[in-house]
């Protein structure tokens, strides 16, 4: 899956956690916690949901990548490509 | 024969709307069953029954607003008064203006066409209406009696309410704002009462939380995402264990003074998206393992934000914790939720130059605060409580 698809996965899972969130106005590098008022429990749930959906365990140390749409999409695309090559 | 009454779901509640019966006459009830949904200023709350028996007769129709203590149903085979959840103290009305009315006269289990209560019900009794439609109508303060239902048998469905509210049907109204006014009134009533009646004293204590942080990183390191913990699970458990040794901070202040609670139900202040907050309890917090506590917290936060907490959770916290999380500020001076006698605040963890072992190092530091009721405890014991929380967090493997 490409980067756009990864971005869409993150966006959909955020919408499930925070249904009122307006993702159209969020920049690629914008901190989702600030922009959408997400707390650590929300980020925990986001990491769980994205991991489950992609069947890829995001290590705890990498979870911080998911606090921006751009960073999360780039990270997931790279990791899944590496996993595919490996 | 027992009577199931409108519960007091918080010190500030004077009346509630019986939204829906989830049990019907003839059904067997056991302790903890959710019997009804009640709408309060805090949102829709699932009300549990704490008796075993058989539901005999419903006394109040859905849609009726009745004062706290009004009999709602009769339960056969239970000898005592079936309180929806045991209130911590006799109900003390707050000063906030709330509509009150005489108890609704009994109605038959099969609702008649007309509501018999003298209060104008917010929703017509006996109407067929979907839960989503009911919730939206409540949020928008729409009169359901004026709506034309287009669902099966003329039932009012979400689309009807959306149309009446001027909203596009379908998923387009995701960002619709909640009606915050009732919750603001509830917060105002509880906090005004607290500031008026409770002689607060405040203590703060900053300490190094590197042991807890390192332990958490190590614990989470090898775990799949769903089994990890967040930092606030540790602080919550530390509070629960600490107050078990300092009972004067865990309980309720009522008409006969302070009474300590044997159980520890820590309330967690949960900020709702778009504004407002609620502080429902995690039952027996001290007895849950950290993974159990994490699950309970996550479940409670999700349900609270979706507006689905239960009566016992909202009515019986014995002490409350308010955490600012990672994007807050250093410290908060919280206000006690009456009739509780203490609230513990945790500021954000911040990196600070910290003197340790004769040298200055950069350490993660957190400020814990205590607001406590001077009628129930004194500052000396409060200080010991905060130091005990520090000690527990310094040895997180024991949590």
Automatic annotation (TrEMBL), chain A:
Top-level taxon in the UniProt lineage: Bacteria
**Pfam family membership, one:** PP-binding
Annotated Carrier domain residues: 1-80
Cross-referenced InterPro entries: ACP-like_sf (IPR036736), PP-bd_ACP (IPR009081)
Q: Where is the signal peptide?
A: none
Q: Which PROSITE patterns match?
A: CARRIER
Question: SUPFAM superfamilies from the entry?
Answer: ACP-like (SSF47336)
Name of the protein described by the UniProt record: Acyl carrier protein
Please give the organism. Pontixanthobacter luteolus
Automatic annotation (TrEMBL), chain B:
Cofactor names = (R)-lipoate
Q: Does the keyword Transmembrane helix apply?
A: no
Using the record's annotation, list all stretches that form the Lipoyl-binding domain.
1-76
- UniProt superkingdom: Bacteria
Annotated InterPro entries: 2-oxoA_DH_lipoyl-BS, 2-oxoacid_DH_actylTfrase, 2-oxoacid_DH_E2_comp, Biotin_lipoyl, CAT-like_dom_sf, E3-bd_dom_sf, PSBD, Single_hybrid_motif
Q: Annotated region Disordered: where?
A: 78-114
Q: A Pfam family in this protein? A: 2-oxoacid_dh
State its Enzyme Commission number(s): 2.3.1.-
Stretches assigned to the Peripheral subunit-binding (PSBD) domain: 128-165
> How is this protein annotated for GO cellular component?
cytoplasm
Signal peptide residues are none
Q: Which UniProt keywords apply?
A: Acyltransferase, Lipoyl, Transferase
Q: Which GO terms describe its molecular function?
A: acetyltransferase activity; lipoic acid binding
Assembly: Forms a 24-polypeptide structural core with octahedral symmetry.
Q: Which family does the UniProt entry place this protein in?
A: Belongs to the 2-oxoacid dehydrogenase family.
> What's the name of the protein?
Dihydrolipoamide acetyltransferase component of pyruvate dehydrogenase complex
């Amino acid at each position: 899956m490409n980067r756009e698809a990864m971005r869409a996965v993150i966006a959909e899972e955020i919408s499930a956690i925070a249904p009122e969130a307006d993702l159209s106005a969020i920049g690629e590098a914008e901190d989702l916690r600030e922009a959408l008022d997400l707390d650590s429990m929300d980020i925990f749930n986001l990491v769980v949901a994205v991991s489950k959906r992609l069947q890829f365990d995001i290590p705890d140390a990498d979870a911080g990548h998911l606090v921006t749409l751009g960073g999360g999409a780039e990270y997931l695309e790279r990791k899944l490509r590496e996993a595919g090559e490996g | 024969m027992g009577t199931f009454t409108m519960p007091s779901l918080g010190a500030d509640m004077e009346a509630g709307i019986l939204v829906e019966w989830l049990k019907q006459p003839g059904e067997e009830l056991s302790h903890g069953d959710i019997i009804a949904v009640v709408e309060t200023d805090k949102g829709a709350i699932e009300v549990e029954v704490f008796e075993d028996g058989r539901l005999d007769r419903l006394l109040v129709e859905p849609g009726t607003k009745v004062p706290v203590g009004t009999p709602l149903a009769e339960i056969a085979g239970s000898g005592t008064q079936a309180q929806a959840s045991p209130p911590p103290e006799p109900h003390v009305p707050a000063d906030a203006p709330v509509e009150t009315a005489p108890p609704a006269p009994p109605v038959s289990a099969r609702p008649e066409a007309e509501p018999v209560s003298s209060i104008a019900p917010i929703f017509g009794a006996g109407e067929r209406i979907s839960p989503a439609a009911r919730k939206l109508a409540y949020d928008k303060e729409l009169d359901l009696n004026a709506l034309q239902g287009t669902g099966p048998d003329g039932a009012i469905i979400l689309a009807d309410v959306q149309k009446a509210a001027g909203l596009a049907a379908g998923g387009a109204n995701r960002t619709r704002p909640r009606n915050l006014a009732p919750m603001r009134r509830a917060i105002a009533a509880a906090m005004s009462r607290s500031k008026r009646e409770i002689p607060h004293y405040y203590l703060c204590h900053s300490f190094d939380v590197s042991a807890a942080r390192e332990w958490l990183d190590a614990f989470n390191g090898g775990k799949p995402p769903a089994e990890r913990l967040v930092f606030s699970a540790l602080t919550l458990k530390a509070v629960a264990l600490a107050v078990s040794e300092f009972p004067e901070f865990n309980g309720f202040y009522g008409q006969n003074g302070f009474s300590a609670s044997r159980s520890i139900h820590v309330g967690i202040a949960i900020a709702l998206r778009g504004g407002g907050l609620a502080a429902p309890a995690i039952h027996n917090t001290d007895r849950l393992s950290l993974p159990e506590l994490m699950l309970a917290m996550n479940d409670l936060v999700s349900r609270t934000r979706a507006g689905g907490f239960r009566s016992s959770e909202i009515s019986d916290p014995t002490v409350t914790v308010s955490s600012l999380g990672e994007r807050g500020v250093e410290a908060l001076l919280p206000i006690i939720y009456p009739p509780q006698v203490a609230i513990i605040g945790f500021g954000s963890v911040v990196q600070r130059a910290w003197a340790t072992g004769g040298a200055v190092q950069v350490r993660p530091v957190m400020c814990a605060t205590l607001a406590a009721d001077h009628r129930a405890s004194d500052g000396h014991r409060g200080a010991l409580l905060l130091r005990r929380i520090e000690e527990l967090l310094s040895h997180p493997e024991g949590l």
